[in-house]
Fold this sequence. Notes:
Layout: H1 7-32, H2 35-42, H3 45-50, H4 54-85, H5 90-105, H6 108-122, H7 132-158, H8 161-169, H9 174-204, H10 220-231, H11 235-265
Helix pairs in contact: 4-5, 4-7, 4-9, 4-10, 5-7, 6-7, 7-9, 8-9, 9-11, 10-11
Amino acid sequence: MTSRLTRRQRRRVSQGIQYAVFVAAVAAVVAVADWERLRNQFAQRGLAGELFPQIITTALRNTVVYTASGFVFGLVLGLVIALMRLSSVAPYRWVAGVYIEFFRGLPALLIFIFVGVAVPLAFPGAEIPGGTYGKVALGLGLVAAAYMAETIRAGIQAVPRGQMEAARSLGFSHARAMASVVVPQAFRIVIPPLTNELVLLFKDSSLVLFLGVTLEERELTKFGRDLASQTANSTPILVAGLCYLLVTVPLGFVVRRLEARTGKAG
C-alpha cells in the first residue's frame, strides 16, 4: 500500500518535474539549432571589431542624447499635465485627460511620423529648434509625458494631505506649498517608475530612423541596420543590441534597487 505524499513532498515533485522539462527544452534547442550558421550570420568577430569606435562615439552617444532630451522634455510636460489633471479648474482637467488618453492610445511610431511630416505641413517655413535632436526630443517627450503625468499625479496624491495643510498653516500659498512641499515628496515616491520610463525611452529612441537622419545623427538601431545592409551580415545588429543592454541592464538594476528601497521605506 502506497502512502500519500505530503503537501511539501508534492511541491518538491512538481518542482522537480518543472526543472526536468526546462532542462529538456534547453537541451532540445541546443541540439537542434545550427550554431555554425548563426555564428556566421550574427557573430563575425572581424566585422564586429570594425564597428568600433564609431558605434560608441556616434550611435550610442546619439541614443543617449536622444533619450535624455526626450526624458527631460517629457518630465517637464508630464509635471504640467499632472498638475492640470489635479486642478480645480475643469477645462484644465479636461485638456489633461484628453492629452493623456490620446498620447497613451497612439503607437509611438505614429507620433514620430506626425512630428516629422505633419508639423512641417501645418506650419510651413517653421522649424523645430535643434533640428533632428529637437524632433526626437519632441516625439519622445510627447509620448513619455502622457505616462509620466499619471505617474506624477499618483505620487502627488500619495503624499499625506497633512503635508499640504501643515504648509498652509505656516502661511504658504497653495502654489508655493505644492512646489516646495508636495511635489518634492511626490518625486521621491515616483523615482522608480520614472527610472523605468527612462529605460523604455532608451529603446523607443530607435524610432528616430523614421525622421530621416544623417550619418552623424544615427542612433544604435539605424547604425546597425545600415551596416547590416552594407555587409549583408547581421553582426552589426547584434552588436547594437549588446550596446542597448550595456545601458538598459544597469538601469534595470537601479530600478529594482529603488523599488526595494521604496518598499522598505513604506
